[in-house]
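Two entries, shown back to back:
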Amino acid sequence: MTAAVFALFAGRFALMARGPMFLFGAHGVVSLSIMLHFSSYADADMMNLMGQNLLASFVSVGIALAMWQLFPDVEPRKPRARPQKSPARVRHETLLGATVATLSFAVFQVVELRDSMSAQISTVVILFALHYPDTIHTAHKRALGTLLGSALAVAMQLVLYSHAGNLLLVMIALWCGLMLFARAHVLEGGASGIGFCGLTTMGILFGQYVAPDQDLVYSALYRISSVLVALVCGLAVTALVHRLLNCLEPTRTDAPS
């Protein structure tokens, strides 16, 4: 099972390392990480999980197309310059991402951290930088985005207080928060930075925990602590794997040219 998971991750990270199909590989890594983890539980409905994942993907694409038509670009977008990578660097990035993602999957399976999906995804998302020095900056931004998103969600919950059950007020509060982080996301160049992490944090907290039988404050604090611990552990493992791969000539990235 672990070997099959590693092979699946390696295929996605290979696409990301080469560049042209980065988004396809990144989406595949996140989807695989979630579905492989939750489908391993006996009470999980695999078909329902896959159906919801596909539905969410199609809805997201549909909304993005609608927004693109309603708010077109004011000027043509310039394609991003792709760095030239040596075969050794491609192999390094592929094995680094696949190894750490597989270890993350194995740990969350063994410890049975079913309610820590955000922490699990955090250990995978920081790998999208593909190179260890860049993962440090990505982890820092993700931690800060999670902290700010959680703090803003809790502040809005306190402002709403007894009106938290009013859907209209909740939607207005959520829209204001998402607009703030969306602006930050755009100013960061659309990368997975503070704005993107704040967006996902608010979306998850408001989408899952704004209900009479849920405690948003506890959920926000749990999310912050679990994500921070996962990021620290993920960075430590990434640093170790990075050093091991640099000990081998076929996967060495810091060799003098």
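entry 2 starts here
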Amino acid sequence: MTAPKKSNSRVTILDREIELIRYADATRVLWGDEMSHQVYDWVYGKGERIAPFMFSLRSGEYFKWSEKWKPRYDQHRLYYVLEGQLSIHDPESGEVARAEAGEAIYWSGLRWHFGYNFGSKEALILEAVAPKERPPEMPEVEMSWEKPDLGEVVNGRYDLLGKWPAARPEVHREAWKTGGIMTMTARDCLHMIKVYEERWFVDTEQWKGAF
């Protein structure tokens, strides 16, 4: 994988000057294989703390895992839906979160995750992860051999059948505390007023995510 093309454009965000990498200059990567299914990625470079990507899923498409491709990471992950719909599934715990355009899915810690597009049109997702999992020059597939295989797949929180929606507040509180997979909307953001309104989806020691 080659680095994104250098740009002469620079912008200031949060009082910091950063390089602007345009869509046409992003590096295209095909993640996955026939067994895991494949995802088209646009890589916008990897900073010291955060790695920004964009990916798409066609209607009815998904990604899971294979021996060579294992979506199991110990990171903070934010998937912001630009277009369409995205569902993220933790196959070990059975947790599932769904986001529409303008919403995000967030979690942290060591987890597997599968992704699905159950919507009627292609989904376009802005992805940010921290910390970096590997050196920029190392392909992800090289690290998969170090990861364990996935065991039994749990397709939902069956333990909550007969308790929903009464158990919803408790489940959401636990997810916030433990880094579980959760959907974040504008109501969940930390809002601030400057010259314009800022919506903070994530602001932690590891990274910040504003839209």
